[in-house]
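Per-residue structure
===
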Amino acid sequence: MWVIKLGGSLLASAEGRQALRAWLALIVEQADGQVIIVPGGGLFADAVRTAQQQSGCDDVTAHRLALLAMDQYGMLLAGLAPGLVTAQSELEIAERSWQHRPMVWLPSRMLLADRHIAASWDVTSDSLAAWLAAKLGASHLLLVKSVRPAGARMCVEALVSSGLVDASFADYIQQPASASFFSTWLLGPQDHLLFSSGFVAAHLQQGALAVEASTNVPEAI
C-alpha cells in the first residue's frame, strides 16, 4: 500500500491546481487499490485557524474542527476526480483495496477514536498521514507539497526546521523496531510524471526526495 498525502497548498495557485488534477487522474488510472490519498487541510484548515483566533476556542475543539477540515478537503478531491471513492475506516479501506478502487481517506472517524493523538497544531496532516501509513503497514509514504527542496535526501529535522512538515512529524516516522517499516518521500507538484507508467518503487529514486530519520531511512530499492 502507498499512502500519498496531497497538500492543501496545491490549491493556492493555478499551477498547483493543474498539478493536483494530474495527481488525481494518475491515481485513478494507476492505483489498482494500492494507493490511498490523505487530504491536507488547505483553505478549510485555514478557516479553523481563523475561527480559533477570533473565538478563542481551545485546542481540543480546534483539533476536532481541523480533522473535519481534512474530511472536507477529501470530499473536494473526490469531487474533482469522480473515479475516486472515499473510505472512513480500516474495513472500508480494505474493501476498497480488494475492489481495486482508488480511494481518498476521510480521517475524522478514525483519528477522533485515537486518544493518543495530541490535540495540537504541531500534529497536522503530514503526521496524520504517517500515522495512517503505520496503521496500514504501508510500504511507502509520499508527501506531495507545493514546494520541494533540491537534492535526493534530507533529514527530517531539517524539514521540520524549515516548516515543510509539522513539528511532530519526526516522532511519527521514527517508529519502534516492532512497527511496520515504510519509506518516506517528499515530492513536488510535477513529480506525478515519475509514475506515468505506474506506482513502482524504483521510480522514487528517479526524482523523489528521501526523508531520513534515525530509525526510518529509505533503503536502496
Remarks:
- The longest strand covers residues 2-6.
- Residues 215-221 have pLDDT under 50 and may be disordered.
- Residues 59-80 form the longest helix (22 residues).
